[in-house]
């Protein structure tokens, strides 16, 4: 059994804009089992990088938040760096993308996709 905790309220904010975009992508893929997974990896110009993927499977220790019937999931290692963050979706002159606003980041790179603690 996979120990997971998906809640309606969590230490991470899943914006309406991000949830709407995930719901739209799930509908396009015709796969209601998909969830948006956000994770942290080592690397990038500031030390850590954010990653996003769609995942059908929950993994041991995953946590997340349910918004408008879609789920954002995070592995336990990444969760500690993302507490207090907001996952949002933006469409602007730089393109369409998911972003993380992380109050734990001491520095970020110019593109906003990497950070240091």
TrEMBL record:
One of its GO terms (molecular function) is iron ion binding. Keywords: Iron, Iron-sulfur, Metal-binding. This is Iron-sulfur cluster insertion protein ErpA. It comes from the Bacteria. InterPro entries: ATAP, ATAP_core_dom, ErpA_proteobact, FeS_cluster_insertion_CS, HesB-like_dom_sf. SUPFAM superfamilies: HesB-like domain (SSF89360). The lineage of its organism: Bacteria, Pseudomonadati, Pseudomonadota, Gammaproteobacteria, Candidatus Pseudothioglobaceae. Its cofactor is iron-sulfur cluster. Binds 1 iron-sulfur cluster per subunit. Belongs to the HesB/IscA family. Required for insertion of 4Fe-4S clusters for at least IspG. One of its GO terms (biological process) is iron-sulfur cluster assembly. It comes from Candidatus Pseudothioglobus singularis PS1. Residues 12-112 form the Core domain. Homodimer. HAMAP family: Fe_S_insert_ErpA (MF_01380). Iron-sulfur cluster binds at residues 45, 109, 111.
């Amino acid at each position: 059994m996979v120990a997971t905790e998906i809640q309606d309220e969590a230490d991470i904010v899943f914006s309406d804009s991000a949830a709407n975009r995930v719901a739209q992508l799930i509908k396009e893929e015709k796969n209601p089992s998909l969830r948006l997974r956000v994770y942290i990896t080592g690397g990038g110009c500031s030390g850590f990088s954010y990653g996003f993927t769609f995942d059908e499977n929950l993994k041991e220790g995953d946590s997340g938040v349910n918004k408008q019937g879609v789920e954002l999931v995070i592995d336990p290692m990444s969760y500690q760096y993302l507490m207090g963050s907001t996952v949002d979706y933006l469409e602007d002159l730089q393109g369409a993308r998911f972003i993380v606003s992380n109050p734990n980041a001491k520095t970020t790179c110019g593109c906003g996709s990497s950070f240091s603690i």
